[in-house]
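A.,

Following up on our hallway conversation. Structure tokens first:
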């Protein structure tokens, strides 16, 4: 008779490590698939070259109309944050998930969701010293990452401590956002809060709750292989 499987819930550290192993396996499979698919794609492109030239004008017009619709959807995503007793804000408006190839005007700063670039910002504990595109960062949030942001009012000591925290945490990233309202802010898909300093207990609580948390639209999706700054 076989023994029963353990029902002990995984800790946050174990859950993240399990996600990391799965991501590495997916990346290996993806590389193999890319090699196989590339040959077929090249052949198809050669055969379809003449057709693509003749259809170019029509496709450009269609893309322009699609872009206008995307902008309209972004504008319709207006809403507000409702805060719980712990200070975590939840966005009330609908957050679209369309892939776009242009700048998006988000109704909050930093953004916590909405239309975004098809390439995610690398979020495997990545720390960026300069501002990064919102559209790529939002895609990282869709994959279950927590985005730590700060402006010039944050102390050097806090920035250094935050960098250490992020570098030790898969599915997280960090960058400066000068226009945000508070010195240090934490964002996940649909959620955001301010923390007073890097030693604020709310920092660890936010990571525990939202790194690959229940809010994640695409749990387990890659945080490597994207844009690296």
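Then the amino acids I'd put at each of the 229 positions:
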């Amino acid at each position: 008779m076989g023994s029963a499987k353990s029902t002990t819930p995984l800790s946050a550290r174990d859950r993240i490590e399990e996600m990391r192993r799965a991501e590495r396996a997916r990346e290996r499979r993806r590389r193999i698939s890319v090699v196989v698919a590339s040959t077929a794609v090249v052949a198809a492109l050669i055969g379809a070259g003449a057709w693509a030239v003749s259809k170019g004008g029509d496709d450009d017009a269609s893309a322009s109309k699609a872009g206008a619709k995307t902008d309209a959807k972004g504008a319709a995503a207006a809403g507000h944050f409702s805060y719980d007793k712990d200070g975590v804000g939840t966005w009330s408006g609908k957050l679209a998930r369309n892939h776009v190839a242009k700048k998006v005007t988000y109704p909050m700063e930093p953004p916590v969701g909405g239309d975004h670039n098809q390439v995610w910002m690398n979020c495997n504990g990545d720390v960026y010293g300069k501002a990064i595109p919102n559209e790529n960062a939002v895609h990282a949030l869709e994959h279950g990452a927590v985005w730590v942001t700060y402006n010039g009012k944050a102390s050097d000591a806090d920035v250094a401590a935050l960098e250490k925290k992020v570098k030790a945490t898969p599915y997280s990233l960090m960058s400066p956002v000068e226009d945000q309202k508070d010195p240090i802010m934490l964002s996940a898909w649909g959620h955001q809060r301010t923390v007073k300093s890097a030693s604020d207990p709310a920092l660890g609580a936010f990571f525990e709750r939202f790194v690959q948390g229940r809010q994640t639209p695409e749990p387990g999706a890659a945080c490597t292989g994207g844009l690296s700054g």
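The radius of gyration is 20 Å. Curious whether your intuition agrees with the design.

B.
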